[in-house]
């Protein structure tokens, strides 16, 4: 079987912030290959560089040294080519725009014709299960539905790569479980490549084909786990020995990373 094409490739990637008192090493020698169709979760303690790495992919932060490519391009070229959709921790919807108009925003910026915009909005709403809510305003929707609208906006222009920064972190467990299931279905239907930041071990193990465990600053990759779980994953897979074994390895990796602080 031929190996899938590389979507994100990082080699010895470092990022250092110049703070007032001393430099902050946010990322240190990160080496990672994300292949087409992968679902990659990044997990680690707060301040370990998970979000920073996502922001480097998106060209929202600039690397200090090393190399990174997105679809074979620099992050800046990938941003200009609109090679990815980005879902933030908070839905970041404009309260004065109805849901369809929020989803339309990137399409308007990209000058899609009105007819094409409507078609893409309808498809994106269908993908996230929000058909019928297009004329509602964000404040009329629950937190989970707002986050689904945010995902729809990121899907609307059909980029192959979806960057998701703890999109379900603020939601309660029942809503989060439901959206995890929905996200897996969406991934199966669209075959997108997803990079997903989370603090939750069960979420990382349930969603991913690959789990990247990161250490506290300086943000380093301490383990990369290729999941043996099948792509079809009912929620009760979380009680299986295979699932618990991966979760245990993630927990061990997080503990090992912490030991570097001392």
How does this structure look, described?
The structure is a single chain. With 262 residues, the protein is an alpha/beta fold. Helices cover 36% and strands 24% of the residues. The protein has eight helices and nine strands. It has helices spanning 50-57, 75-80, 99-109, 114-127, 143-155, 173-190, 201-207, 241-258; strands at 6-18, 23-35, 39-43, 65-70, 84-87, 161-165, 193-198, 210-214, 221-226. The protein has a six-stranded mixed beta sheet, sandwiched between helices. A three-stranded antiparallel beta sheet has the order 2-1-4. Strand 8 and strand 9 (221-226) form a beta hairpin. Helix 3 (99-109) crosses helix 4 and helix 3 (99-109) packs parallel to helix 5 (143-155). The longest helix has 18 residues, at 173-190. It is globular, with a radius of gyration of 18 Å. The relative contact order is 0.17.
Short description:
This protein is α/β, with parallel strands linked by helices. Helices cover 36% and strands 24% of the residues. Strands 5-6-7-3-8-9 form a six-stranded mixed β-sheet, sandwiched between helices. Strands 2-1-4 form a three-stranded antiparallel β-sheet.
């Amino acid at each position: 079987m031929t190996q899938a094409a590389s979507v994100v490739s990082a080699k010895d990637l470092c990022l250092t912030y110049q703070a007032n008192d001393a430099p902050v090493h946010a990322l240190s020698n990160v080496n990672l290959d994300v292949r087409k169709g992968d679902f990659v979760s990044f997990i680690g303690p707060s301040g370990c560089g998970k979000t920073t790495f996502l922001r480097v992919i998106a060209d929202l932060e600039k690397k200090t040294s090393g190399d990174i490519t997105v679809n074979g391009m620099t992050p800046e070229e990938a941003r200009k080519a609109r090679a990815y959709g980005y879902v933030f921790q908070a839905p970041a919807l404009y309260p004065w725009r109805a849901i369809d108009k929020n989803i339309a925003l990137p399409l308007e910026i990209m000058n899609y014709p009105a007819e094409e915009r409507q078609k893409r909005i309808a498809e994106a709403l269908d993908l996230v299960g929000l058909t019928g809510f297009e004329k509602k305003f964000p404040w009329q929707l629950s937190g989970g539905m707002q986050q689904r609208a945010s995902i729809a906006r990121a899907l609307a222009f059909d980029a192959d790569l979806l960057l998701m920064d703890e999109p379900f972190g603020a939601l309660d467990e029942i809503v989060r479980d439901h959206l995890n299931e929905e996200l897996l279905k969406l991934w199966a239907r669209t075959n997108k490549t997803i990079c997903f930041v989370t603090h939750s071990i069960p979420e990382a193990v349930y969603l991913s084909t690959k789990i990247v465990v990161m250490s506290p600053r300086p943000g380093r990759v301490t383990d990369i786990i290729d999941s043996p779980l099948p792509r079809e994953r009912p929620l009760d897979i979380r009680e299986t020995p295979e699932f618990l074994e991966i979760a245990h390895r993630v927990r061990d990796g997080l503990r090992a990373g912490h030991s570097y602080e001392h």
